[in-house]
Design goal:
The chain is an alpha/beta fold and about 425 residues long. The chain contains ten helices and 19 strands. It folds into three domains: about 40 residues; about 170 residues, no CATH class; about 160 residues, Rossmann fold. Helix 4 packs parallel to helix 5 and helix 4 crosses helix 6.
């Protein structure tokens, strides 16, 4: 029922201010009720103030085990590439700039609590957040819903999640704020399992993941879970205490941006990914599936209109008809298993797709794949996420921009159309190896 209501809200009601006001009022009510519940349990041992700290700042004395895999470093990346930027009066973007990749490490901590639907790790009087977090400006979904409150001036968090904790002796945390989105699953969560597999000392540690994930995400765990670790599902916003917990730093990070009522901002984050981790992770998946021979497959990944997706390509049927006529495979990733997606994308030399979660399947492709991303143009849009991901994987990515429709949706979620002349020109150049 909740999923149906969310689908109706996102697909239709959210374009109207009155429904956005109603939603925000509901969120405020939930915050108030949680605050009342927390203050009525003021003596609950879990009702504390926690100091905000970053993962890297934990001392060796606080860890039962600590291993740095990759040091933090800066690397150069090119600005996003556009095939039709002159149509939109874009500034000159043919330049490179430095991006900081955070340190990647594995730590074993004693007596921690994790919160489903978040990456918060509660350790004594501290709450540990990813290295990439900006304490001054980043918001969190748990904060938006009132499960935690943050005093940014003091650098403190107060947890109002006072439910009785389930306790376990051993575990590896793979819960996350954005775990339910396939792109974030592939970039923020699943690579941790690849990293974990390097440490045999943790072979018998169960893996804790968010409950109610799509089937293909659970399948991806089983495919890469080489020691058949137990999988334990954590319900959203419920706490779990683990006496000996393995925590792995974020290989990538995307801040949470809540929808406002009137002004709804876009992210100014320039996304960074750990080049070494993602190249190894991609190669490992191809080895698991024995994708040794490169084929010349051409794939179009549709953006499913279901699953609460907004930001449709209005003339997608026209695009599909054209691509089918030149022997592209048309794939709806949401209808495929994880294994099937690996088989299809792992053999592709050209991938065309609207921006969205399915585009993260470029991780499954062999190096030097050509990716053509369809995207809307709007004021202050950021195009770094998929561009940066493609570059660290060794792919080439080019954007084909389209004009948005006028609607009440957040700028990031408005539907758009692609000029077929622009697309056909780019596809011909791709096939002729001129990009």
């Amino acid at each position: 029922m909740a999923g149906i209501i969310l689908h109706i809200y996102r697909g239709f009601l959210s374009r109207f201010v009155v429904f956005r006001v109603a939603r925000y009022a509901f969120v405020l009510l939930m915050r108030l009720l949680r605050h009342i519940k927390s203050t009525s349990n003021i003596f609950n041992s879990d009702y504390k103030r926690y100091q905000l700290v970053k993962f890297k700042s934990l001392s060796l004395e606080e860890c039962l085990f600590s291993k740095v895999i990759l040091r933090s470093r800066d690397y150069k990346t090119d600005s996003p590439k556009f095939t039709n930027k002159v149509n939109y009066n874009l500034d000159n973007t043919d330049s490179s700039f430095d991006v900081s990749a955070a340190e990647i490490s594995v730590k074993l901590l004693n007596n921690v609590s994790i919160l489903g639907g978040s990456f918060f790790v509660f350790l004594d009087k501290k709450v540990v957040l990813p290295e990439q977090c900006d304490f001054d400006k980043d918001t969190y979904s748990a904060e938006y819903l009132g499960l935690v409150t943050i005093n940014r001036k003091k650098g403190e968090m107060k947890s109002t999640a006072v439910e009785k904790l389930d306790e376990y002796d051993l575990g590896v945390s793979m819960v996350g704020q954005n775990a339910f989105n396939y792109a974030h699953w592939m970039t923020e969560i699943l690579p941790k399992l690849y990293i974990l597999n390097k440490y045999t000392a943790f072979d018998d540690y169960p893996v804790f993941v968010d409950a109610d994930l799509p089937d293909n995400m659970y399948e991806s765990i089983h495919v890469l879970n080489k020691t058949n670790r137990d999988i334990i599902a954590v319900k959203k916003w419920e706490k779990v205490r683990i006496r000996n917990a393995v925590i792995i730093s974020q290989p990538s990070y995307e801040p949470y941006i809540p929808d406002g009522i009137i002004i709804r901002r876009t992210s100014d984050t320039v996304n960074s990914f750990s080049k070494e981790v993602f190249r190894e992770f991609s190669s490992h998946i191809q080895e698991v599936f024995s994708l040794n021979n490169r084929s010349e497959g051409k794939v179009y990944l549709t953006r499913n209109s279901g699953n609460n997706n907004l930001r449709r390509v209005e003339n997608e049927s026209e695009i599909i008809n054209y691509l089918q006529s030149i022997n592209f495979m048309i794939i709806n990733g949401s209808s495929l298993s994880f294994s099937e997606q690996v088989e299809v994308c792992g053999s592709a030399s050209i991938i065309v797709a609207p921006i969205g979660a399915a585009l993260a399947n470029m991780i499954l492709a062999k190096k030097e794949c050509l990716v053509i991303a369809l995207a809307p143009f709007y004021q202050d849009a950021k195009y770094h996420y998929y561009s940066n991901l493609a570059q660290i994987l060794g792919h080439k990515l080019f954007y084909v921009l389209g004009r948005q429709e006028i609607s009440g949706y957040h700028l990031m979620h408005r539907s758009y159309s692609i000029d077929m002349k622009d697309l056909k020109k780019v596809i011909k150049m791709a096939i002729d190896c001129e990009l």
